[in-house]
Amino acid sequence: MSCPAHVAAGGAAARRPGMVFPGRRRTAGTRHRGLAPAPPGGVALLSALVAIILLAVLAAGAMHLGRGDFQRSRDERVVRQAGNAADAGAYDLLRRWPLVPHEALPVGAVLGPDTVQLAGGTAVARAVRASRTTWWVTSAGRAGDSLARTLARRAVAVALRLAIPDIPANAALVVRDSVAVAGSARVMGSDTLPSALAAHCPSAAPAPAAAIAMPDTTRLCDGTCGGGSVSGRITGAPPLLTDSSAALPARFRAFGPERWATLTRHAAIVLPPGSVVTPAPAVSGGRCDRARADNWGDPSGSGACATYAPLIWATGDLRLQGGAGQGVLLVDGDLVLEAGARFSGVVIALDDVVSTGAGGTLLGAVLAADARVAAGDYSRLDGSTLVQRSSCAAALALEWSARLVPVTQRAWHPLR
Asked: How confident is the model over 95-153, as pLDDT tens digits?
């Protein structure tokens, strides 16, 4: 039996894509293939959350890095401040040295502790006398705040030495040009050991020396007396010494590693030109008052100023009217002694040394450079003046008045 035409056609149509016969349910396989399925709604939300989380992580990382950089910068600054404080404490002794009682301290003695306050930190320093001429300073610097967890500590050590001038004093009096010894004045080359200084001087026996050293001994008594002795008041071994080096200006300005400029730059006492001084020991509160310009120590060896021997620089002529002192006296002109003035140590006058009236006493070593060489302009000792050589007084004056400087090599050492 043959099928109707529409049935045959329907069979063909049933196989045509996209057609649905009545009564048949459309399945997923019968959808039109040209339409894409709609994306699920949760993917966009998940992407946004992931982006937000990534941004938050990046922001947190940036904040952490920034905070770390800030903390490192702050910590480095605090560490530098602690180091600077430690250095300042170690070198502060150089600044305070002329005012610090140190001369009689034995080897092994300690100065301090001394506290140095700075804007960014604090240092505590101690100085140990390692030998007669060297010191070992330790300084602990501190900066920051322990409550803020920024506390930093640094410690350093510095090796220091006394810069002692080397003054070639081969006679009690060294003059560059002329000198007159009049009245009852005396110049003695015999080396004396003052009883007030015996406890501080080495036990070596005093060595004899000349009384006066000069380039031309005929210039004694202004060129009219030259004979080696003036009525026995110039005594020494020999009384007069011909010393060609006394004609050189450097003899009175260069002292080994030290120079006139370096000495005067660190003078403990500076006097204006034309000063008239009556030096005397000064005590305040039972301690030697080293801040007074007229306190030049006590050469009698008694009292609080017995070992105080300052470096004194007179920037012009200086007149001593009585009184007593000790140390190193540098004069940019004439030194005039009157009314029995007494000085123990080293005296260097760039022009003349003159005593008038009752004169005075100079014990140690005296040098006169005769800067102005002219008729009638020369050193003159009159009255009852005494100039006597004392290697002990000169050596102690140079040591006690010497400035403190770092050693030549590897002076600074970090400790922690």
From this structure: 888 888 888 899 999 998 999 888 878 999 999 999 999 999 999 998 877 665 677 88
Half-sphere exposure of 7 (CA within 13 A, CB side): 4
Which pLDDT score, from 0 to 100, does residue 38 have? Answer: 57
Distance CA 363, CA 119 (A): 48
Strands 134-143 and 122-129: antiparallel
Decide if 267 contacts 312 (C-beta within 8 A).
yes
Q: What is the identity of the amino acid at 75?
A: D
Dump pLDDT digits (tens) for 176-233: 988 999 888 999 999 988 888 888 886 666 778 899 999 998 888 755 565 555 667 8
Q: How many CB atoms lie within 10 A of CB 13?
A: 11
- Report DSSP state, residue 3: P
Closest CA to 123 of 78, 79, 86, 155: 86
CA 181 centroid distance within chain:
43
Q: Enumerate the β-bridge partners of residue 167.
A: none
SS3 65: helix
DSSP character for 404? E
